[in-house]
TrEMBL record, chain A:
Component of the 9-1-1 cell-cycle checkpoint response complex that plays a major role in DNA repair. The 9-1-1 complex is recruited to DNA lesion upon damage by the RAD17-replication factor C (RFC) clamp loader complex. Acts then as a sliding clamp platform on DNA for several proteins involved in long-patch base excision repair (LP-BER). Belongs to the rad9 family. It comes from Paramormyrops kingsleyae. The lineage of its organism: Eukaryota, Metazoa, Chordata, Craniata, Vertebrata. It comes from the Eukaryota. This is Cell cycle checkpoint control protein.
UniProtKB/TrEMBL annotation, chain B:
This is Checkpoint protein. Component of the toroidal 9-1-1 (RAD9-RAD1-HUS1) complex, composed of RAD9A, RAD1 and HUS1. The 9-1-1 complex associates with LIG1, POLB, FEN1, RAD17, HDAC1, RPA1 and RPA2. The 9-1-1 complex associates with the RAD17-RFC complex. HUS1 interacts with POLB, HDAC1, FEN1, PCNA and RAD9B. HUS1 does not interact with RAD17. Interacts with DNAJC7. The keyword Nucleus applies. Component of the 9-1-1 cell-cycle checkpoint response complex that plays a major role in DNA repair. The 9-1-1 complex is recruited to DNA lesion upon damage by the RAD17-replication factor C (RFC) clamp loader complex. Acts then as a sliding clamp platform on DNA for several proteins involved in long-patch base excision repair (LP-BER). It comes from Paramormyrops kingsleyae.
Length: 399, 267
């Protein structure tokens, strides 16, 4: 892969990296036919972000010949390349990014003023595809607003605020800070902010609902949105299903996917319901990658003790693996059972592009390096997790 | 027990916010006393060993367009609340361009002071932000703890130099010592001195001016104009006080010296 960026687009890329750095620690870079994708996921895997730069964003973009150029690196090293944003605009005229698979090297060459050339060689790890699957159009509610509106909204909440509840009806949206802990409730200051539907560029509410998610994960997006001036769209549905925020223009598509609390007081695991976007190449990837498996979350039916299907069970369909559900089962109260199994079998039929039926399937293709499951942290008890790591590389279920 | 108030003027809102900001920088919790005509922010730390005590009296008419209060009992028409001024400060911060601000005492999951600000918006419907600040109602039997401190007789009363200058000096001195001796006389001279084993530093201010002596000073006629009255204070507390001053940062403050304490009064 080889691409060249010029002028102010270098700054846009740098801002994208910075935005991603606020969410996760590792950057997944994947050159695709339709552009360069930069992705990350947070440590608890409850938030995912993707910046897709189309070939038009670049002065020159040479897509990879084979489709398996994917790399993962520590995001801080990429940030170091674009060190000070303000001077970037003034000094950097051109930026060239080359990906050399054989040498495992990603080279950033910054052509600066006065003939100065800065070359950064970053090494990376091969990685599997990190791609959340979600369906924006299928969400019941869609709100689109100018970024300033959202920035003004979050101003009312303290920067340290983790969770926020958003409830929506036909006329207005209410943002409230959410306090989980009973003890804290009596001490904490509660803030509520109400915006009328008229303030939004687009306000489509088909379901009166109330969702809770982590505000902190979005701050990176809001900063980027404000600097780009692009309107932000929120897609969400019932609690438990992930919400998506996206920004689009002709050369760039940004998507942030966040898990939402599944139900008041009854945190269930993995209620993310993200439907599969039909992308044929994905299955190929699964078959080809060494350490891959797909972690699938069933809506509320992770049976702790049920058999985990073997990862690549079905050749053509993303296998269902009830990843770290086991771990979470201990911490949460409930787990429903059976349907998961059945669902898995039905998958091949369903994934032919039909919108799923009521029994949602959720898929999140995650990286599956054998890091210990991160489910135990407190936030996760209430947050649903889109993906989890499994203990074993060979795909046997994690305990 | 009821309380409802409204601020409609942006200038009043800003002033009120500045007062609250000052208080929030001085202390983590304080007591708010509401009477029919006034609001008081009070803190009574034990002053004996170098603590800070604060008393702030505000005429409600200067800030509020509407103010209705019903105290705990007809013979005790006052309300004492304990709250965290930082919460109040935070709530006011984002309401600076509000069309109106309403405050009232409510009972949600606990007694709260609820502030609701109506903010300008792009549409015909205003944005409303509501903050519920948890408060503790202080029972009547504890009210006597919060009495207005009397300003005792003082030796010297002097206008302070620009706070910024003073703060700069004190910031540097803080690195060298924990205690500072402040001395002043009636000729407008003031010295800030620190002394350690290794070094002693003093900063001299001249021509500061003394307020007219008519306000209760001990006027021994024998009090010589040049005699310095001294007080030793904890630098950190002094610094904290100076950095909290936001109300009128450019105006001088009056300092009254009574050994062993200093009273600082913003004007």
């Amino acid at each position: 892969m080889d691409c060249i960026l010029i002028g102010s687009n270098v700054k846009v890329l740098a801002k994208a990296v910075q935005s991603l750095s606020r969410l996760g620690e590792e950057l997944y870079l994947e050159p695709q036919e339709n552009g360069l994708a930069l992705r990350t996921v947070n440590s608890s895997r409850s938030a995912y972000a993707c910046f897709l730069f189309s070939p038009l964003f670049f002065q020159k973009y040479t897509p990879p010949k084979s489709s398996t150029q994917r790399c993962k690196m520590v995001i801080k090293s990429v940030q170091a390349v674009f060190k000070s944003l303000s001077s970037l605009e003034k000094t950097v005229e051109k930026c060239r990014i080359e990906l050399d698979i054989e040498k495992s090297r990603l080279t950033f060459t910054l052509h600066c003023k006065h003939g100065l050339l800065k070359t950064h060689n970053l090494s990376f790890q091969d990685s599997e595809s990190l791609q959340a699957v979600f369906d924006k159009e299928g969400c019941a509610n869609t709100l689109t607003a100018q970024p300033k509106l959202l920035v003004d909204t979050v101003l009312h909440f303290p920067p340290s605020l983790e969770e926020v509840r958003v409830s929506v009806n036909d006329e207005r949206v209410l943002f409230r800070n959410h306090v989980e802990d009973e003890a804290e409730q009596s001490k904490a200051m509660m803030t509520e902010f109400c915006l009328s539907a008229e303030e939004f560029d687009r306000f489509v509410v088909n379901m009166h609902t109330c969702i809770t998610f982590c505000l902190k994960e979005l701050r990176g997006l809001l900063v980027f949105a404000e600097s780009s001036g692009l309107p932000v769209s929120l897609y969400f549905d019932e609690p438990g299903r992930p919400m998506v925020l996206s920004l689009t223009d002709s050369v760039l598509e940004v998507n942030f996917v966040l898990a939402t609390l599944s139900e008041e007081g009854q945190p269930r695991n993995h209620n993310s319901n993200m439907r599969r976007v039909s992308e044929p190449p994905i299955t190929d990837d699964f078959m080809n990658d060494d350490v891959d498996y797909i972690i699938a979350m069933e809506a509320g039916e992770l049976a702790g003790d049920s058999d985990w299907p073997e990862p690549p069970r079905h050749a053509l369909t993303p296998p269902r693996l009830h990843g770290a559900a086991g771990d979470q089962q201990e911490s949460s109260g409930e787990c429903e059972d059976e349907d998961g199994q059945q669902g898995a079998v039905e998958t091949p039929v369903e994934e032919s592009g039909r919108p799923p039926n009521k029994k949602f399937r959720s898929l999140f293709f995650g990286s599956v390096l054998p890091t210990p499951s991160q489910m135990s942290n407190r936030t996760l008890q209430s947050q649903e997790v889109l993906a989890s790591d499994s203990e074993d590389e060979d795909g046997s279920p994690s305990p | 027990m009821r309380f409802r108030a409204k601020i409609l003027d942006v200038g009043c809102l800003n002033s009120f916010t500045r007062v609250v900001n000052t208080i929030s920088k001085l202390t983590k919790t304080c007591t708010l006393r509401l009477t029919a005509d006034n609001l008081y922010f009070m803190l009574s730390d034990k002053v004996a060993n170098g603590g800070v005590s604060m008393w702030c009296e505000l005429d409600q008419g200067n800030f509020f367009d509407e103010f209705q209060m019903e105290g705990v009992a007809s013979d005790a028409n006052e309300i004492y609340l304990e709250l965290v001024p930082e919460n109040l400060s935070r709530a006011l911060r984002t309401a600076q361009n509000a069309k109106s601000l309403k405050a009232k005492l409510t009972k949600k999951h606990c007694p709260c002071l609820t502030l609701a600000a109506e903010l300008p918006s792009l549409s015909s419907v205003s944005r409303v932000v509501t903050h519920d600040i948890p408060v503790d109602v202080i029972p009547r039997k504890l009210w006597h703890d919060f009495r207005e401190p009397t300003v005792p007789d003082f030796d010297v009363s002097i206008y302070l130099p620009p706070l910024k200058t003073m703060k700069n000096v004190i910031d540097r001195m803080k690195n060298l010592s924990n205690f500072l001796v402040l001395e002043a006389n009636r000729s407008g001279q003031m010295n800030l001195k620190i002394e350690t084993d290794l070094v002693s530093v003093s900063t001299h201010f001249r021509d500061l001016g003394n307020p007219p002596c008519g306000d209760g000073g001990s006027q021994g006629a024998s009090q010589d104009l040049e005699t310095m009255a001294q007080a030793r204070v904890d630098i950190k507390k002094l610094q904290q006080f100076l950095s909290s001053q936001q109300v009128n940062p450019s105006k001088a403050m009056c300092s009254k010296l009574i050994y062993p304490s200093i009273h600082l009064l913003p004007i």
